[in-house]
Amino acid sequence: MIVGVNRFADQDEALSIPAPDYSALEKAQVKSVKAVRKKRDASKVKRALGALREASGASSTDTRLMPLIVDAVRARATVGEISGALAENWGYFRPSQ
Q1: What is the pTM of this model?
Q2: What does the angle CA 37 – CA 41 – CA 47 come to, to the nearest 5 degrees?
Q3: Helices and strands of the chain, counted as H and E runs
């Protein structure tokens, strides 16, 4: 008995799957984010991110951040802006190497 040999092996060449054009996707996303930032009320975003920043720095462990995150999203803050506001107090996770 021979172990590890597939007796029904396919002799055809593997299919070539083209990679998507990520540069075009990036350009479209950047354009979309700029359009959203242009339309939104900047003062609402600033207030929402400020409240989130303040709450995330509070020493109380029972501070509920999710309602503040939802408020920031409703004000059209980006995920990057929200995570940046949280990172100001908490920093970023960097795995030890």
Answers
A1: 0.71
A2: 105
A3: 4, 0
Find the radius of gyration of the CA atoms of the chain: 24
Measured CA to CA in angstroms, residue 20 lies from 17, 23, 26, 66, 91 at distances of 9, 9, 11, 35, 33
Largest Cα separation within the chain, whole Å, is 75
Task: Identify whether the C-beta of residue 51 lies closer than 8 Å to the C-beta of residue 88.
Answer: no
* Residue that the structure tokens 């990057």 belong to: 80
* Domain map (residue ranges) of the chain: 41-90
CA–CA gap between residue 51 and residue 86 (Å, rounded):
11
pLDDT tens-digit readout, 19-56: 888 999 999 999 999 999 999 999 999 999 999 999 99
**Residues in Cβ contact with 65 at an 8 Å cutoff, skipping those fewer than 6 apart:** 52, 55, 56, 86
Helix or strand (DSSP H, E) at 28? helix 22-39
